[in-house]
């Protein structure tokens, strides 16, 4: 099973920190998973110009290929101007339509203010749904005050991250079993 | 083929086309050599001619998994190997080439084939050639429109004066050689969006539209809009003057079940290679339905689909891509045989009623 964790921001540290916790939570639950962690901070990505993702090169090709081959994707993002960062939207724009078909996606949002709580719901989920993802209904929302010096200091958040890992892996497993059953019934 | 002249003995011409893709056969994991792939294409054109198929097309892609970048060279060999079948590109990516050179090549092909050459002008669904030839993908639309317009001008006039953005000016120049009858049929290749079909209508040139999959009905809009726009712009939209061609992935075998079983791995693995996403089984499972555009099934099933589409589109040509995804040559031969013996006669019988 291929798992991709995408830290969807080129600035700040909260999202990267949260994704590290999530990475640990997933690894603890199942050490047979093939997990890749991508942080937009460390990548040099092209702007989408409409070509097929296979026609890009370098980091862009590496990231898009990993996302296309993933069974499970976790997206972490900070909130910029009441929406997702433009750099994260660019990642979606690089991918083909239906890119997330048969994939389960879990979400973590980090924010400076509790007022942004619904941004994942109103800004990110519609994009993921359009791209045919099975999006986990519950996401983890983390505020500034839950972090300190690159660690998460609110125990509730740590439990929530663990729960996101567990439930996403569970749904993915279930979904893949059903898909396999359905595919087996075809005679081709 | 000199002036565009559709086959008068049938309301629907039947053609084959290839992108010259070079993919492994997923049934055995083997990939034929470049040499074999190209030789087999030429041989397929001869078999197609013997089977009474009207057209044979070869396309260009300029990237990994494809062999026929020099599609005009391959078409030259096909022209020499055959006598009656029309020879077409499928398509020529004019955005990346000099229209003067394309015109020269196809005029020559027309002379070699004694008036059987046609151009299908495409915009590129794969963009490898933009990098290869140093073109900016941001000029994707502009390059295509400018070059297509120049190509159409070259076809119309003996002496050309022209200036544009992507090619040096032409000042009272003549292009040699001229094709038979002084002109060559030029079709506009159209993909999904209706806007592209409308442009073809505005230009008043024949249209080849890809109907790759999904409900056949979804492509009707583009075809209707094409004819409507052409009419609004004062063009004669009769079947002889502005024919419509569809282009589909195609695979037939004795039974629908066998066709599905043999073809699915080619389609699924082939698509993964060239697009990076496979073909979902759930979607493929719709193929036996006559309303689904994907042309996979028994000859009878295919006839039913073609007739249904003809009712929807009233098109004049159907182009079948029978070699996608490493289909081995013995199966290509089998497809051509079934097309010639069963499908073409079956379609004709119903349409000529």
UniProtKB/TrEMBL annotation, chain A:
Homotetramer. It comes from the Bacteria. It holds the Pfam family FMN_red. Keywords: Flavoprotein, FMN, Oxidoreductase. Residues 1-143 form the NADPH-dependent FMN reductase-like domain. InterPro entries: Flavoprotein-like_sf, FMN_Rdtase-like_dom, NAD(P)H-dep_FMN_reductase. Gene3D superfamilies: 3.40.50.360. This is FMN-dependent NADPH-azoreductase. One of its GO terms (molecular function) is oxidoreductase activity.
From TrEMBL, chain B:
Residues 24-312 form the Luciferase-like domain. InterPro entries: Bact_Lucif_Oxidored (IPR050766), Luciferase-like_dom (IPR011251), Luciferase-like_sf (IPR036661). Keywords: Monooxygenase, Oxidoreductase. It comes from the Bacteria. GO terms for cellular component: cytosol. GO terms for molecular function: monooxygenase activity; oxidoreductase activity, acting on paired donors, with incorporation or reduction of molecular oxygen. This is LLM class flavin-dependent oxidoreductase. It comes from Staphylococcus xylosus. The lineage of its organism: Bacteria, Bacillati, Bacillota, Bacilli, Bacillales.
